[in-house]
Automatic annotation (TrEMBL):
The organism's place on the tree of life at top rank: Bacteria
InterPro entries given in the database record: AIG2-like_dom, GGCT-like, GGCT-like_sf
Pfam families per the UniProt record, alphabetical: GGACT (PF06094)
Name of the featured protein: Gamma-glutamylcyclotransferase
Stretches assigned to coiled coil: none
Source species taxonomy: Bacteria, Pseudomonadati, Pseudomonadota, Alphaproteobacteria, Caulobacterales
Domain Gamma-glutamylcyclotransferase AIG2-like: start-end pairs: 6-102
Length: 103
């Protein structure tokens, strides 16, 4: 993989969300992120998955790593908004990728 790598563990895995925000469905490879606690956050009536670095109960988080463009990453930043922040992580596969965690 040589482009921008993004690890998705929640709504960004949904092809409908991908088409709406990137203009196409994405293809990726399964991977895992260790050392984070999976939780949820609420925005109005909506509930979203979120990761907390370390946190009270770190467990492996299964997801998909996508190779995207810098423009796609900017679109993902806009989609995630102020509820999340983007950080670099090393996945179980030893790949470094971006992931969105609790802001």
């Amino acid at each position: 993989m040589t482009g921008v790598l993004l690890f998705a563990y929640g709504t960004l895995q949904d092809p409908a969300i991908q088409i709406a925000h990137f203009g196409r469905p994405l293809t990726g490879d399964p991977d895992r992120l260790d050392g984070f606690t999976r939780s949820t956050l609420t925005d109005g009536d909506a509930v979203y998955p979120v990761l907390i670095p370390g946190g009270p109960a770190p467990t492996p988080v299964e997801g998909v790593v996508f190779e995207i463009t810098p423009a796609d990453l900017a679109a993902a930043d806009a989609y995630e908004g102020d509820l999340y922040r983007r950080i670099r992580v090393r996945l179980a596969s030893e790949i470094e990728a971006w992931v969105y965690v609790a802001a």
